[in-house]
């Protein structure tokens, strides 16, 4: 007998998009060692952790080295001290009541948005916006929910909801019933946002069709305009139909430190084959207690400092810094006559490729001639073909340099 693999893994592309880009960029750098490459591909931050966070982190590490204050396993769901800060600062001021057992601390929105599908049956129909953060799609492929990819680059059993220039990047409600709906707003990769009214249509749809919305709000800190919801629970009735994912990566620089959380309201139910209702919160709790041992104590203590006045001040400075980069990118590319989206309520800028180039051609051109790395839009799904994503997360100096180099190209 030989070991049999999970053949669903054979249905996914051999490389995760950001690994693929890294490999190409590394090869390019090896072939051209003297070239100074500016990375605006993966959405990784460059500003350091806030001082207030580092201080709390250091203090908590010291506690762990002292027998009197040492802590072993913490609660799998996270410590109450952090959960209470989240509820008090992120939700209560927006009029959203959450109970502590509705918030689950984790090591990343990527992990949670990838893992959440496990608690749902394989027969559910899954809808994703297109282009889309690849984790939602690929975690469902691995689970066996999507079937193989067709010639059109779409998994046959997934429902794709195009977000394109034609519809202003606003996803239209599905025409066939769907059970699970992944929404990410402000959107990765297009950088566009939904208004309260637009998101409310999805909440209404989910209520009418007994669907569940998996709402990724990892970029909410970048919202600048009024009338853009920071949480899906600002929409009436969302508690019964939505799970929300949040992250400290993009607002507080935790990409390398890892801390995030997921909100699973007690009202949410799913059904077994006999039609009996079951609490989604209990299922997620059951999943986490079996497979996850919680985020470390020092990290959770450090995360609390995000909410301190000093932490907030530093975080806001970083967000302003990145949003200044975003407007530099937008303006520079617009001045070159390119069609540019996003970058107003989000750190991502979504650029239409010039001269009818495809996404990878534009990627190669930018890498070869400007030594700037973007992410080819097609890596986020078929409707991303003909676009490229740039991030505002690099330094101001590099952002300006990148724009100067791009402006010298013959686009
Ligand atoms: C991205 O570039 O899309 C994100 O950085 C990926 C992530 O947050 O996992």
From TrEMBL:
Pfam families: Aminotran_1_2. The modification N6-(pyridoxal phosphate)lysine is found at residue 250. It comes from the Archaea. InterPro entries: Aminotransferase_I/II_large (IPR004839), DapL/ALD1 (IPR019942), PyrdxlP-dep_Trfase (IPR015424), PyrdxlP-dep_Trfase_major (IPR015421), PyrdxlP-dep_Trfase_small (IPR015422). Its EC number is 2.6.1.83. One of its GO terms (biological process) is lysine biosynthetic process via diaminopimelate, diaminopimelate-aminotransferase pathway. GO terms for molecular function: L,L-diaminopimelate aminotransferase activity; pyridoxal phosphate binding. Pyridoxal 5'-phosphate binds at residues 73, 109-110, 133, 188, 219, 247-249, 258, 293. Pathway: Amino-acid biosynthesis; L-lysine biosynthesis via DAP pathway; LL-2,6-diaminopimelate from (S)-tetrahydrodipicolinate (aminotransferase route): step 1/1. The keyword Transit peptide does not apply. Residues 36-406 form the Aminotransferase class I/classII large domain. Its cofactor is pyridoxal 5'-phosphate. It catalyses: (2S,6S)-2,6-diaminopimelate + 2-oxoglutarate = (S)-2,3,4,5-tetrahydrodipicolinate + L-glutamate + H2O + H(+). Keywords: Aminotransferase, Pyridoxal phosphate, Transferase. It is an enzyme of class 2 (transferase). Substrate binds at residues 16, 43, 110, 133, 188, 293, 389. Homodimer. Belongs to the class-I pyridoxal-phosphate-dependent aminotransferase family. LL-diaminopimelate aminotransferase subfamily. Involved in the synthesis of meso-diaminopimelate (m-DAP or DL-DAP), required for both lysine and peptidoglycan biosynthesis. Catalyzes the direct conversion of tetrahydrodipicolinate to LL-diaminopimelate. This is LL-diaminopimelate aminotransferase.
